[in-house]
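Quick note —
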Amino acid sequence: GTDRQRFTFVKIADTQDGVYRSFNRAPIIDDQGRVIFRADLSNGEQGIFVGNGNMLEQIAGTAGDFKNFPRHPTMSRNGKIAFLTHLDDGNVAYFQGPSLANDLLFSGAIFEELGDIAINNFGTLAFKAKPSEGNDWRRRIFIGGTHRPIEVPESAHSQLGLPSINNNGIVAFSIGDEVWTSDGHTSRMISNSDDPFFLYSRPIINDAG
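Predicted structure written out below.
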């Protein structure tokens, strides 16, 4: 209706040109209007792309050293990129581009089951993983970057949702029917549900907390 006239729709990419077979369900847009997304290509490869309606750039692809991209890529508000990839040599790591030497953000050598990721304007990561050491099989949230990340207290849970992180380094995450925030040292529950069948999935935190 008339409400739609307030918006301008810009096509970033489509499957009509024969290059793309399908797109993942979670594209992310930054403050400059650039959209990052993962695509399955018609030739059987996968790729990470960024576009704004005028330009379309491939950030990484599986035709080289990357085997696949098992999770959605992410992007900060100022355009910092992060994605999880399996490498042809069997390792799992987070990267920001196609170069094994220059674009590595964090290697998963000390973790198992690296998972969903968020990144802020300063390049600080928040991600889900399970430590390789110990007998606790539950994933938890870690905050960090190129150095060894710190484990977020109270985040180990069998129903751990996707994390988000603001530019102050505060992460928001859900565990079942509860929502928490943490600076990596102290965690605080900010919401919960009395319904045991109600689950939160992906709380988002802004810079005001």
